[in-house]
Write a structure and sequence with these properties.
With about 425 residues, this protein is mainly α. The protein contains 22 helices and no strands. Helix 8 packs antiparallel against helix 10. The radius of gyration is 21 Å and the shape is globular.
Length: about 425
């Protein structure tokens, strides 16, 4: 199964060479791995139970993603992000890169890295026509979103897991990881500041004709409401204790109702152009299916016991908690960080490492930021890859070394603090 996973992973990485859409490869890999579980002798009933359990978690992520993408597309169709584009007046690429990266870093801590990436990718599309510039900025959005999510208890799925499980407290994760997470972003930004030159065309994307059907007040209103509803998602979770995807669906429903009321007196063709039905058609469905395939593949390895075996091997090979977490962080760039963190939580109960122990806070940092090393290693990276069609090998050549540099810069700052 591991060999088949690696082969599928290589086909995804070499998408532009083999000329097969990565979503198709990911789906084939994910589904086939579950079939292999049956063929190699696993109990069919037990395997079905495992699949059902994992698919419930996967479905939550997919519905969260769909709702978030729909909200962002609604804001964009109402010309909301073009307003931000006009407010940002700088024409220097490096200044814009710093501005958007810092904004992403803090926004990710309040929202989460996945939602923030979707929002910021929609924003940077307003600045660039050139694919290389767009991809480069998206690469830093990924690094910034993962770094920003690592120091917040609600910024990443793994930090939410550790927070809800009692492994870390709010104060410990914020105070302990803010500086390392910030260094994870600032070091790569500082390095590229020495060689990124040139200006941008601040009117890269032309306004759609349908935008003439809405007023500036309507654009400002939908932008403010949409962003406010996205920010309300973690509040909704805190109040109701329901999963995040429920809060995102609630926010979508509110924005949907408001836009229906806003355009109810306009001609039918105008109403349709701004409707959710029209907006959903713009969402990149293959990127959602890509998510599904990747998550199914990783879940199969978890059900097979491969990830548990990996954790046991690390425990037997290294006695140092810092080395174990550094390796887990790097592995999270290949395998989703959620099952790795879940495995660590199962292997080390709180009577071994109590709440706010260095093991847990360092795990939150490593698992949250290590995924930036490869574009497929985090939800933020997978989302950006799907939306902008970023080439795996391009990211490996251009961004991985910067992400790795930031990853270890944060580690050094964490160790100095401790």
């Amino acid at each position: 199964m591991i060999i088949f996973f690696v082969v599928g992973y290589l086909f995804i990485a070499l998408e532009h060479v083999v000329k097969i859409d990565k979503a198709a490869t990911a789906l084939f890999t994910g589904v086939t791995l579950w079939a292999i579980l049956i063929f190699i002798g696993h109990d069919a009933i037990e395997t079905k139970l495992h699949l059902s359990e994992h698919f419930e978690e996967i479905a939550e992520i997919l519905f969260f993603l769909l709702a978030a993408m729909t909200i962002v597309e609604l804001i964009d169709s109402h010309n909301g992000f073009s307003i931000i584009n006009k407010v940002i007046t700088t024409t220097k690429k490096i200044k814009l890169l710093w501005l958007l990266s810092i904004l992403t870093f803090f926004l990710s801590a309040v929202l989460d890295n996945l939602t923030t990436t979707i929002v910021m990718v929609a924003l940077i599309k307003k600045f660039f026509d050139d694919k290389s510039d767009l991809w480069y900025f998206a690469g830093f959005i990924i690094i910034a979103a993962n770094a920003g999510g690592a120091w917040s208890p609600i910024g990443d799925v793994t930090t939410i897991m550790l927070w809800n499980g009692g492994q870390v407290s709010t104060n410990a994760i914020i105070l302990g990881l803010f500086l390392p997470s910030l260094m994870c972003l600032l070091v790569p930004l500082t390095v590229v500041s020495f060689y990124i030159k040139g200006n941008i065309d601040n009117n890269a994307e032309q306004t759609d004709n349908s935008h003439s059907q809405i007023s500036a007040k309507e654009s400002y209103f939908i932008l403010a409401l949409g962003v406010g509803l996205l920010l309300f998602v973690p509040v909704f979770k805190t109040i109701t204790h329901l999963p995040p995807f429920v809060g995102m669906l609630f926010s979508l429903s509110v924005l949907w109702i408001v836009t229906e009321i806003l355009h109810r007196k306009k001609p039918e063709d105008v109403r349709h152009s701004f409707s959710v039905a029209r907006t959903i058609q713009k969402i990149d469905t293959p990127s959602v299916l890509f998510f599904l395939g990747i998550l199914l593949a990783v879940a199969s390895l978890q059900s097979n016991g491969a990830l548990t075996l990996l954790g046991t091997t690390l425990e037997n090979s290294f006695s140092n908690i810092y080395i174990i977490n550094i390796v887990l962080g790097l592995l999270s760039s290949i395998v989703d960080n959620v099952p790795l963190v879940a495995g660590a939580m199962g292997m080390y109960p709180l009577d071994i490492f109590p709440q706010d122990h260095n093991f847990w806070t360092f795990l939150a940092y490593c698992a949250g930021t290590g995924g930036s090393v490869l574009i497929i290693g985090s939800a933020a990276g997978v989302a950006a890859m799907g939306i902008l069609k970023i080439d795996f090998l391009w990211y490996l050549k251009k961004m991985s070394w910067l992400a790795l540099l930031g990853y270890f810069a944060g580690i050094v700052s964490y160790l100095i603090m401790k």
